[in-house]
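Appendix B. Worked example

We walk through a single record from start to finish. Start with the input: the chain for Restriction endonuclease S subunit, Xanthomonas vesicatoria ATCC 35937, length 756.
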Amino acid sequence: MTALLTGNLPLLAGAPNGIKKLRELILELAVRGKLVPQDPSDEPASELLKRIAEEKARLVAEGKIKKQKPLADISGDGVPFELPVTWEWARLGEITNFGITVKKEEIPEDAWVLDLEDIEKDTSKLLQKARFKERNSLSDKNFFNKGDVLYGKLRPYLNKVLVADEDGFCTTEILPFRCYGPFLANYFMGALKSPYFLRYVNARSYGMKMPRLGTEDGRQALFPLPPLAEQYRIVAKVDELMALCDRLDARQADADSAHVQLVQALLDSLTQARNAEDFAQSWQRLAEHFHTLFTTEPSIDALKQILLQLAVMGKLVPQDPSDEPASELLRRIAKEKALLVAEGKIKKQKVLSEIEKDEALFELPSSWIWTRFGNVCAIKGELVRPEDFPSLRQVAPDCIEKGTGRLTDNRTVKDSGVKGPNSRFFAGQIVYSKIRPSLSKAVLVDFDGLCSADMYPIDAFINSEFLLKEILSAVFLEQVRVAENRIKMPKLNQESMANFVLPIPPLAEQRRIVAKVDQLMALCDQLKARLGEVRQVHGSLANALIGQALNGEKESGAEVVDFSAYLISKLAPQRTFGRVAHMKLLFLADSHLGLGLMDGYRRHAAGPLDTTIYRVEERAAKEGLYSTSIEVLKSGQEKVSYHIGDNVNRSVGVTAAALGVARKELDRLIALFEGRKTDDLEAVATLYAVWNDALAGGLRPNDEWLINEFRSNWHEAKERFTPDILGKWLGWMRDHGLVPTGNSAVTKSQAAFLFN
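Next comes the structure step. The output line below is what the pipeline stores for this chain.
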């Protein structure tokens, strides 16, 4: 994803908090090393750290700063995500100091004094610059130098960050970060504003009414450090993309077209992934912003086009090594065409040239092959008089929906009133428009009829549905545009078309691709039809896409039943572990890790609950993963217990493979609740859902709001949790890194009922 947003910024309108989410995405990509390409000639960040250490040692020796106590070592297991090889993880206290506090009596009257309200949240714009004599300040201040990065440590002001343009003083609720050695302050500022760092701070803020980041937690924070040269490239790209975001804010009238540009930029980046892992990460990151991106018909159309592109690149379905390779398929097609020529059923074609290396547009799976369009089909065109076929169907470019392969009109030759010669076509052929601006109009017909003379009837020697999808994909259409620019008349001739290069998969895989594309296209159509329910549909489609990406080259991917079995394998022996605990932990794993397993979580008495859990348990029993039993307790309540099945290790292995390094986080989550009561799990899961729902709705709730929402707007049974208990659990969640982002499935309200 090195070129994710190159040349384009997510220009978005019409979606709640859309631009804000996109700004966050830009910063997140920046601190992960995904926004600009790495340059192997850059001095690595490890050398930068050495120079920072030398600078600190010099300042200590000169008595300008105090020697700090040692910071904890950074282990590979403890880092939040993987960085490029030229980057390094560092602790904030290793590369900065936090300034010094000055008595108010020592501050000059004309000195600049900065308060939190002087900084605009999110944008980092300085709203005003006041002098000490204008402030009437009663408290001591932190001193800062020009170039220091000023960070508001008090929630809800965590995204107020500024680079000082002159010396001054600030409230002690602002931390002045002074970077040692060569360091770009604007990169530092962007990193502090990134979703990654905000998650860290939210998880470690203390205090109920005015939570803030503690100094020691700030010193221990892990900071992603790129080479100095790359810092400059990142800042330039961030500035460029943020400026485009600013223009979107100022020009809401252009929001729809800008949104299309953004979606296309993000989707196009998927085809640039370096490998399967990078591709999977790209899909994951895209899916986290799915409800922000795909909120308009043009954005859904762009998604459809990228699905076609991924399909013809071999990235949408896994390859099967038992499939007959495409090279053998081409040999059989050549023999079939030779036989048809001998029988006089098709004309002998001009021999097409071999594919040169520089003609291959991208790398294909090993079982695929590049070939020319004319090698896998025959372009036909028998001109006839329309008046001789008045009752046949007539197809013209205006009857076909652009880019979808759908007919929009059902008319006869007589109804159409055509007079000039038309081409005869037959059921099973593809009818393709060869004239601009209808060059992305093609349809697979299941009837005989006539078509405009500006259309080609095409016989496919591969799967005709797959060939149609190739014709509608960017691989084909880009070659159409190139060929079109070479001719005076805006029509595509047969010779040019026959020489186009196409990626061809094995025949069996063609069928799988068609089935998967049709499935995902159907989801896209549902999304268009139900924009009012956009969040739920987006979630379903995102899950399907993520599943394809995460499976990659694996034989199978993990499903919700596998994750369920994984939890059962760890916790079934515990007496306190029943269905309520099972559902709550499954919800937390799903939401915290962004798995996209379920999207029907409801606000029940013991919610969040997705009722598909019952079908999951039934399937688990049938597959021998685990079984359930019910006992009646002395209280009269029923208790569900779980019993590990003989096949549970299969699901454990599938889940572990699907998660990769994220398995450690799932195991950590499970360990947090080992031996805890069901009420503990219910409190945490419900708080997580309440918090996530608020963030998804654009709110920035404080603890008081979350507690009130928990007790008042879920179910009366939730009132048994006191505000004090819930406040302690919120603190516990932050301490243990269970802080939502607003990107998980949103819960749905319905009539309450008793569960378990």
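Two observations about the output. The radius of gyration is 31 Å. Confidence is low (pLDDT under 50) at residues 1-16, 532-556, 750-756.
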